Structure formats: structure tokens, C-alpha cells
């Protein structure tokens, strides 16, 4: 079995989920495949996974998704590069006797186009966000043998007609986390003594417009204006074309605020930042089941999130937070203020968050769900 991901720049949530499954795929011989050397390949090797790098052409490795969004002759060149690269992947899978390939995005699945067309092995698509991707998602659904959804909200990636036509291909696979990484301890006596320090709001995300960091800054500004002091810590790196420019715009916006905004950049370990935070916030316009949200809950943090993908359902079922509409900055600010003014409420929600993750999202449960799916797939073959 091969686990395939083409986003080799850093190990974000989708890549982490794939690596966790590959590590624990006990009953199947697993390898990891990516399109270039980088942090993803290094991480896979560090975990002891057999790792192969099949270098993709530059035009297919551009982070701005040239495969999908270029026009004219560039689109034809991209299609030609796609065909030849997918032939290379097919030959690799044939040599390695791969029966099953699991990829972590629509874009990665499209790189397997020849494999999908030939139907010589099964292709699983793990859909992990809720971005509508139109005809490309429909093509990926056609070429994939089965589609695993990280949350029910991830169905919106696919056009409505494709969801109907390919409905038998869809199954749910909520992710999980290794909870031993997150040393949670419930609040003890004296934790709620009054002090004058600002409430620390943390977000962890890539620096892209869809993550809504500008809206989050606006919400925290509203809370400070109401006399509830807060500061904002942003952990996350830039990722490709346009991301550096967006970071510059966010820094300029932060320079106009009445409160501190700290940009910490990419961090290999987010646990110290989660341990130091009071509230976790995610203002994204597009998610599946955010791994960072699970990690914040595992560290006993109350959460405020936009109601996208499975994020809103997750925190509200756990009783550890509130969800708002994506562009309702005022409502987001109200949720932050409520938590900011009530540390005991934050603590109760933190306990509920940790319990919910332990019951439903431990890594063993994640791996077991995947193994059951593979057993069903094998039985149906």
C-alpha cells in the first residue's frame, strides 16, 4: 500500500493524518511517496516509513496549483506533464507491487490519473477540506475507487451532482491524534485568581487568506475595545505564491491594532504554544476536521471557531466552544469575550474538550477505523 501526498513543503494537518495512518497500517505493507525532497519526505523517513521521492516536473510542483488554474497553452503543457508523470507513478506502483494507493487531496489524486483510468489498482481519496473544487473534484471522484471524508462537511468539495452519482463511493474517516504528545493537566487551585494580564488567544494555521487571520485580528480588536484585554499569537508558516504578500498585509494590519499581535512563524512543535494559551481560535473559511483543533482540545483549551467543515460540530458536541458564521466578526468577538471574561468557564470547557478527544479521537481509534475500512474493502473485492 502506498500513501501519496504532493504537498512536500511542510507537514500540515492533511499530511500528518496520512503519516499517522501509514505508521499504524499494521496489516498492510505501507510506503510513503511524494513529489520532491522536503520536510514531508524527511518526516516520513524519521518515522521509519519506507519513503520514495518521484520528482514531479516543476510545473506540477508549483504551489499555486498550476495543474488546475493555468489557462491556454500552459494548460495543455500541464496536461501533457500530468500524463507523463502519472505514467511514472504507474510504473513505480507496478514495480513495487502496490495494490492500493491513498492520496490526501483532490490535486494529489489527479496526479494518479493513469492509475485511475487503468483500474489496475485501487485509489483512495481522503478528502480533508470543504473547498468546492468543481469539475476537478468530479474528475477525482470518477477516477477514485473510494472517497474517505474526514467530516461530513467535506462533501461540499464535490459538486452536488457528483455526490449523487458517486454516493456509493463515500465513507467517513474522522482523524485522530497521538494524545501522549499533549501533556494535559486540569486547572488547579489558584488558577483563577484575578490578574491584570491579557488573555492569550492562539491560532495555528498556514498563512493564507482562507484561514481568516485578518477577521480574527478584527474580532480581537473588538474585544479589546470593550475593555477585555487580549493578545493574539499566530503560529504558522507561509506556503507558496502569494502567501508572503499576505503575511506582509497581515503585519501591516497588526501594526494598526491596539493590542499585541505576535507572528511566530512555522513551528515544528506547537505544544508549548498550546500550553501557554488561554483560548484557541480558528477563523478559517474552509476546513475539514482541523487537526489543530483536535490538538487544542487535547491540551484542554476552550475554542472559538467558524462553522466550516466539521469544526463547529466538533466543538459544540464536545461542549468546549462556540462556532460562528465565517464572516460574522461581531459574533466571533462575542464568543471570545465571553471566554475571556470567565476563566472558570474556560477551564470547564477545557476539561470537556480533553474528555471528548480521549473518547473519540485517540490515534488508536483513528487507525482502527481505517483498518476496518480496509478489511471491508478487501472483503468486497
Question: Could you list some keywords that capture this structure?
Answer:
Rossmann fold, 7-stranded parallel sheet, alpha/beta, 381 residues
Walkthrough of the structure:
The protein is an alpha/beta fold and 381 residues long. It folds into 2 domains: 2-176 and 362-380, 3-Layer(aba) Sandwich (Rossmann fold); 180-360, 3-Layer(aba) Sandwich (Rossmann fold), CATH 3.40.50.2000. 45% of the residues lie in helices and 15% in strands. The protein is built from 17 helices and 13 strands. It has helices at residues 13-23, 39-46, 58-61, 66-69, 72-95, 106-110, 113-118, 134-143, 160-165, 213-225, 243-254, 271-276, 291-298, 311-318, 329-340, 343-360, 363-380, and strands spanning 2-5, 31-34, 51-53, 100-103, 122-127, 146-149, 170-172, 199-204, 230-235, 261-265, 279-282, 302-306, 321-324. The strands form 2 sheets. A 7-stranded parallel sheet has the order 3-2-1-4-5-6-7, sandwiched between helices. Strands 10-9-8-11-12-13 form a 6-stranded parallel sheet, with helices on both faces. α13 (291-298) links the parallel β11 and β12. The chain is globular and about 65 Å long. The two termini are 15 Å apart.
Number of domains: 2
Average pLDDT: 91
- CATH domain class name of the largest domain: Alpha Beta
Oligomer: single chain
How is the biggest beta sheet arranged? 7 strands, parallel
SSE topology string: EHEHEHHHEHHEHEHEEHEHEHEHEHEHHH
Strand order of the largest sheet: 3-2-1-4-5-6-7
CATH architecture of the largest domain: 3-Layer(aba) Sandwich
Strand content: 15-25%
Number of strands: 13
Amino acid at each position: 500500500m502506498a500513501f501519496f501526498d504532493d504537498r512536500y513543503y511542510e507537514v500540515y494537518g492533511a499530511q500528518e493524518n496520512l503519516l499517522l495512518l501509514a505508521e499504524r497500517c499494521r496489516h498492510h505493507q505501507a510506503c510513503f511517496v511524494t513529489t520532491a525532497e522536503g520536510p514531508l519526505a524527511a518526516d516520513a523517513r524519521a518515522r521509519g516509513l519506507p519513503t520514495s521521492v518521484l520528482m514531479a516536473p516543476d510545473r506540477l510542483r508549483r504551489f499555486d496549483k498550476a495543474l488546475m488554474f493555468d489557462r491556454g497553452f500552459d494548460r495543455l503543457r500541464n496536461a501533457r506533464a500530468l500524463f507523463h508523470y502519472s505514467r511514472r507513478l504507474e510504473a513505480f506502483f507496478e514495480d513495487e507491487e502496490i495494490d492500493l494507493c491513498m492520496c490526501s487531496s483532490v490535486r494529489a489524486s489527479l496526479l494518479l490519473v493513469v492509475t485511475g483510468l487503468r483500474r489496475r489498482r485501487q485509489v483512495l481519496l481522503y478528502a480533508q477540506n470543504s473547498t468546492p473544487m468543481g469539475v476537478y473534484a468530479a474528475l477525482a471522484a470518477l477516477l477514485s475507487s473510494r472517497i474517505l471524508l474526514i467530516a461530513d462537511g467535506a462533501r461540499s468539495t464535490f459538486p452536488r451532482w457528483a455526490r449523487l452519482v458517486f454516493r456509493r463511493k463515500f465513507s467517513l474517516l474522522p482523524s485522530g491524534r497521538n494524545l501522549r504528545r499533549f501533556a494535559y493537566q486540569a486547572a488547579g487551585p489558584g488558577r483563577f485568581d484575578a490578574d491584570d494580564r491579557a488573555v492569550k488567544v492562539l491560532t495555528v494555521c498556514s498563512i493564507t487568506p482562507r484561514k481568516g487571520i485578518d477577521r480574527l485580528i478584527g474580532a480581537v480588536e473588538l474585544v479589546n475595545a470593550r475593555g477585555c484585554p487580549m493578545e493574539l499569537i499566530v503560529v504558522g508558516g507561509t506556503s507558496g505564491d502569494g502567501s508572503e504578500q499576505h503575511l506582509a498585509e497581515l503585519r501591516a494590519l497588526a501594526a494598526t491594532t491596539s493590542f499585541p499581535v505576535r507572528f511566530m512563524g512555522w513551528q515544528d512543535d506547537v505544544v508549548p504554544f498550546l500550553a501557554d494559551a488561554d483560548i484557541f481560535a480558528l477563523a478559517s473559511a474552509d476546513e475539514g476536521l482541523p487537526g489543530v483543533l483536535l490538538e487544542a482540545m487535547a491540551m484542554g483549551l476552550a475554542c472559538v471557531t467558524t462553522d466550516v467543515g466539521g469544526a463547529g460540530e466538533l466543538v459544540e458536541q464536545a461542549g468546549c466552544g462556540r462556532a460562528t458564521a465565517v464572516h460574522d466578526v461581531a459574533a466571533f468577538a462575542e464568543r471570545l469575550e465571553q471566554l475571556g471574561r470567565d476563566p472558570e468557564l474556560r477551564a470547564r470547557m477545557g476539561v470537556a474538550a480533553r474528555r471528548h478527544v480521549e473518547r473519540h479521537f485517540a490515534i488508536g481509534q483513528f487507525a482502527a477505523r481505517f483498518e476496518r475500512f480496509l478489511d471491508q474493502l478487501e472483503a468486497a473485492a
